[in-house]
């Protein structure tokens, strides 16, 4: 028998030298003759606990009992019983004698007595934690007694250890034996190694070795007595010295006193079953026990119960011991989120409970879960991650963001929900500084170019703000290509006044990146027009920007002529400019707090705008702009903002809904008509247009039949981001897929004052020319004459301008 047990123990190792673990420092206490060491794995350095028991020979009684403990620990598995990992037996010469040592390797644990001293819990928090621990040990004892028909024999504080997650676990199985109460023929001791039990822990019948009475008692009689001893040691704070001390109930909580007395009943048959202790005691009914139990059976709960629980959990966690929240609840919550059993509100609780962790612990316990959640298809989880990105974004490393997080976040740019698109846009304020230049140029800027023509005005505005904030993280070449084109051609011509205001402020905030030539030829001409903008806030911003940029150009003028590449100057030298960049950032980070957003939003375009105002509303002081809609200002359609004179950049022909049609593309300021100048009548305009036409056979010209864009974005493929701009015959540029803003860049101004103006009067002039042109001969029907509906013979088509015989009212001249 002994050889068999030795084979079982030595089956997983042949000696200490083959033990794949490093033995560290011992703890000050352990059960019986065992020594409890700290240890680590030689493979990965994972922490473990190592228990050792030494004897003078293989026949030593302690070693024989130790073999029983190893066998039992390997075969009995329960969540509240210490987890076995490895065991071995080693022999070593100690002088002239041979010393035999048994090693057991388990999960990392600490003796209960030392963990209690370390936690230093007091008052209700101490009672709640003790209740949770006793609840765990009672379940373990009930499992042994009622399910396995085993008797532990020595339940006490020394036989309880605590894991890294503060769970209490039962061990010390050296005395563990089968309950043979149904065997009437049995006469010997039921507990073969009962001599290992201290006399103070023995019940009356066990101290008398009355095995007949023990066999007639229920299986839990001995271990119920041990639970009573554990409760006494726990609340008295000292090791039990004599059995008589159990009568001192001064420190026992009143809610537990009655059950404590029943556990220590002098009659074994009347002792309380541990399973009944779990069911009946009001002592176990507290917030901590209820919370952990709910988390452990989370998969059995419906979605309504889960939502209610997780919405209350952040406030509930404040009332629980912080150490238990960090070491027990956080791992449970993280696991539930990773495996999909927790709902979106659990993310808020996870981040709040993790906020008090050290940076090292946060990186180990929180960030791995968050990175995994970014790959989730649950839209509510994605919304929650983006809403709270300011809480964990700084903890993400640049490598994490660029290689793992951004790939999943970027899907939100194309989401059908405007709310999710805006949250994705806001998140870039935190993530963009951590992205590589390759990712910014090759991916992020392409998405932002699409968002600048998004159907939601708030998203267009926020895109301009974001570009202004991340300008410092772009390289010089990208800034030259993107900023001026994005701010002037797109933002300053938007029909939404806060978007125009954002464009002005973004230009001002990034003024240090433009040289004098760019300011004079591309920025000032576009801003000056906005000084007569219908919106007063836009006008005031335009005047401030004009003064700022004029001062920068003046500084360039005052520099020595040899400094041809003089920069525009630093922002700090200009009054009132220091807060421009801060304004944009505060709009992004302070206005749209996660608490003000709903966690799950419909994909309809009207719902997301309840929070889309979070950034755009800060761009204007006008209360009427508080609700962001394209039609939020009734005077925009009646009084459209004036057109920019710099129309040779290829943008004048493009009507994408962000500005009205441009009526002229001449270079310079001569073509800007006064606002009060009256437009000629249609008849006069037609005659004037006809007179300009040469009297010759016109060559066939390609008519740009391209439909107008709207703010709802192009439905073409993603490679043609600027297809409308590329079709401009004047610019003659080819769109580069890597440079979405390059196609709308303004070319160098031409010095020639003459140009063939095919669109001098816009689309209306084309229709008027068609109205005075002779219709082609057809045979299918009779053409209409110049009179009022009366038939006539087809007129022979003639070249040149034709006289129109108008009999209706109007001046023929």
From TrEMBL:
Cited SUPFAM superfamilies: ARM repeat, Protein kinase-like (PK-like)
Polar residues biased stretches: 698-712, 804-813
- Segments annotated as HEAT repeats: 366-404
GO molecular function, one example?
kinase activity
Q: Which positions fall inside the Protein kinase domain?
A: 4-284
Q: Which UniProt keywords apply?
A: Kinase, Transferase
Biased-composition ranges, Basic and acidic residues, are 656-668
Q: Which InterPro entries match?
A: ARM-like (IPR011989), ARM-type_fold (IPR016024), CIK-Related_Protein (IPR051177), HEAT_type_2 (IPR021133), Kinase-like_dom_sf (IPR011009), Prot_kinase_dom (IPR000719)
Transferase recorded as keyword? yes
Q: Segment Disordered: which positions?
A: 630-668, 688-737, 750-813
Q: Where is the composition biased (Low complexity)?
A: 750-765
Superkingdom of the organism of origin: Eukaryota
Does the keyword section mention Ribosomal protein?
A: no
According to UniProt, the name of this protein is Inactive serine/threonine-protein kinase scy1 isoform X1
Q: Which organism is it from?
A: Salvia divinorum (Maria pastora)
